[in-house]
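Hypothesis: this fold can be encoded by more than one sequence.
Test: take the structure tokens below, design a sequence, compare later.
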């Protein structure tokens, strides 16, 4: 009952921030327990490296605690944490460009998605796109994943599947068309997030 009362207490955004600012360790524990896994999933979506994702999230929690005095109660702590994870990812990317074989366009797509959405919505969008890819017609899905996931060119797919280049292009176009109808214009950015191409 006591634990439940504490959880209900900190589920209020303003109260949680005020408790963090006053240095309450229980508030920090609640923050970590409640957001660690979600932030790791999000960070992995950005880095595609489990260890690096853990490091980024760890840094974000440490930084949040150290700078807790500067938190503002009107800010959403959830959006604040996701934004910090994103900023930490960009910092890592700039420091170690060789670690991330990402194109400039990839970063731009990520920035647009983050700015256009509540950051936590990105995690939901990733799951939605993955689900819709699995719902594609079997041949269409296979060829789309050979292109996106395996990184094969259309010619390589045609040779591998022993089909014409036009058939490959038709399946990929169809996949994009279905995904755009189901997800909307953000699908391109999410595909960059998932596959980096």
């Amino acid at each position: 009952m006591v634990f439940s009362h504490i959880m209900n207490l900190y589920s209020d955004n303003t109260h949680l921030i005020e408790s963090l600012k006053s240095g309450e360790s229980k508030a920090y524990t609640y923050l970590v327990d409640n957001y660690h896994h979600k932030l790791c999933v999000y960070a992995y979506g950005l880095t595609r490296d489990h260890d690096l994702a853990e490091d980024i999230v760890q840094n974000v929690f440490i930084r949040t605690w150290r700078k807790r005095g500067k938190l503002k109660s009107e800010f959403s702590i959830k959006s604040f944490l996701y934004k910090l994870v994103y900023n930490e990812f960009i910092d890592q990317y700039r420091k170690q460009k060789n670690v991330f074989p990402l194109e400039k366009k990839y970063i731009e797509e990520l920035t647009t998605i983050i700015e256009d959405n509540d950051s936590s919505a990105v995690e939901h969008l990733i799951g939605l796109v993955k689900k819709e890819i699995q719902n594609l017609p079997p041949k269409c899905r296979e060829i789309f994943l050979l292109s996106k996931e395996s990184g094969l060119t259309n010619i390589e797919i045609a040779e591998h599947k022993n089909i014409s280049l036009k058939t490959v292009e038709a399946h990929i176009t169809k996949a994009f068309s279905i995904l755009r109808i189901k997800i909307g214009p953000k699908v391109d950015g999410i595909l960059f997030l998932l596959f980096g191409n």
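The CA atoms of residues 4 and 145 lie 45 Å apart. The radius of gyration is 20 Å.
Hypothesis status: open.
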